From TrEMBL:
It holds the Pfam family DUF416. This is DUF416 domain-containing protein. InterPro entries: DUF416, YP001051499.1-like_dom_sf. It comes from Idiomarina aquatica. It comes from the Bacteria.
């Protein structure tokens, strides 16, 4: 399966490249949280953005920029919504965005590559869950798996992960210039892993 091939390729990346991939995937999930906040007036995206910005800066200049990963994790946890009290589909992608960033921070704190791989798994699972919950009433249960596999959002998620892995495989080292380039890629893409884009204020 494509996702299994993707996960093995992620395992084979160097640590620094794995961190960049995890950051990229987290960035693609944050708009889902921002959309949820916009609709419900619950939560605050600033801790998510702040955590990711701190991590980007750290990866770009590891000797100059020190980050308290545990404190940022606490801040993200404080604004993580719960499915209890939010009876809407959007709460799940919002929760997943927070979960992915928290896992990333834990991985950086523990120097654990397994956490960085888990970010990719959370991103894919978030797309799968969104499709299943959104389309379950229209698609027979025995056809749901095939429906997910063939869905454009899932295909897009797999393609984007593989494209970024391929790009990172071609980069001999992570540098400040590479970080700037990857962050610009997120901006240029302009949508989340669910295809969401918030209007600028």
């Amino acid at each position: 399966m494509a996702e299994l091939n993707t996960f093995q390729r992620i395992r084979d990346l160097d640590w620094d490249h794995q961190v960049v991939l995890a950051l990229y995937l987290c960035e693609r999930m944050v708009p889902n949280y921002e959309f949820f906040c916009h609709i419900t007036q619950f939560g605050d995206a600033k801790p998510l953005r702040g955590a990711l910005n701190a991590c980007w800066d750290h990866v770009a200049q590891p000797k100059q920029v020190k980050v308290n990963f545990g404190r940022w994790q606490e801040k993200v946890d404080e604004v993580t919504p719960s499915e209890h009290g939010h009876d809407m589909l959007g709460v799940y992608p919002a929760m997943d965005a927070c979960t992915a960033i928290s896992i990333l921070l834990q991985g950086l704190l523990d120097k654990n590559a397994g956490n960085l791989l888990d970010v990719a798994k959370v991103s894919q699972a978030s797309v799968v869950k969104f499709i299943e919950l959104n389309d379950a009433e229209q698609v027979p249960a025995d056809e749901l798996q095939q429906h997910v596999d063939e869905h454009e959002l899932y295909q897009y998620e797999i393609a984007m992960q593989q494209a970024m892995v391929s790009f990172l495989e071609s980069q001999p080292a992570v540098s400040a210039a590479l970080i700037k380039q990857v962050r610009q890629m997120v901006i240029d893409e302009g949508v989340s892993n669910l295809g969401l884009q918030l209007e600028e204020d």
